[in-house]
Amino acid sequence: MTESLEALGRALFSAVLSDCLDAAGYRSQAMQARIRPLDERLAEIRAVSAADVQRVAASYLPPGKRSVVHVLPGAENDGNGAAAGGAR
Hints:
Elements: H1 2-21, H2 23-31, H3 38-46, H4 50-60
């Protein structure tokens, strides 16, 4: 579970950082006259705690409404997207 939360945290950080650096996002903000300094935006990202990530993940990814894909090294593909040996 910790590894998946770390991966979720990295994905969240990457998405927000991408937004911070997105030129179209800056143009949109400039038109609305609300550009904030990058250090201010990064401080907000750094303020996100593990508990915040867990709370949001639990809200958006409840066990009955998520799909989990396990990618295993060395698994042969049958050409139809399924690994040799069938689903697990």
